Amino acid sequence: KFDSFESYNREAKPLGMTFDKPRYQVLMLRLFDQESEASRQPLTAAFAECFGTDFTWHLRDLFEQSMFVCLVGMDEGMEDSLMPRALHLLDVCAEKYGLTLSIGVSNCYADISHLSTACFEATQAVREHFIRGRHQLIPYSELSRTLTAQTNHLSSLSELSGQTPQQQ
């Protein structure tokens, strides 16, 4: 929907959101065993503690219960520092606030028109908690969901010379 950071800032201003960094990533947070409404304030405090003023971040509840999305902005060259901060966020949430969560992380983008792509990536990554478990940081770049061409095993079996169908 957005073609520039300016158009994003115009639309997001009523929500108290502005974007002033040239790079961004999306974090998708999935809380376990907690009420979303009661978790918002501790999550906000944990983000403030872990991300400080080095990043611009905006945390929002999603329609899906126990899900939050966070748009994180950063200066150029800070892309590598997001993952250690997100790992620290997991630990602070667990140790200080008693929140168990997993975080899906999108790739890094410089063009706001890729915001929907970043949200999709973070959503796909956080769904990986079904496989990896709770208290996980899951970058989208680690997911490998490519489909390989299916081999017709029956035709391969019929090519075994000298074998009976029962042996095949």
Structural overview:
This protein is of the alpha+beta class and 168 residues long. It has six helices and five strands, in the order αβαββαβααβα. It has a five-stranded mixed beta sheet. β2 (56-61) and β3 form a beta hairpin. It is globular, with a radius of gyration of 21 Å. The N and C termini lie far apart (56 Å). The model has no long low-confidence stretch (mean pLDDT 84).
How many strand segments? 5
Number of helical segments with 4 or more residues: 6
Low-confidence stretches: none
Strand proportion, as a percent range, falls in 15-25%
Mean pLDDT: 84
- Helix and strand element order: HEHEEHEHHEH
Rg, rounded, reads 21 Å
**N-to-C span:** 56 Å
Give the helices and strands, then pairings.
Layout: H1 5-12, E1 23-32, H2 36-51, E2 56-61, E3 67-74, H3 82-97, E4 100-105, H4 115-126, H5 129-132, E5 137-139, H6 153-158
Parallel strand pairs: 4-5
Antiparallel strand pairs: 1-3, 1-4, 2-3
Helix pairs in contact: 2-3
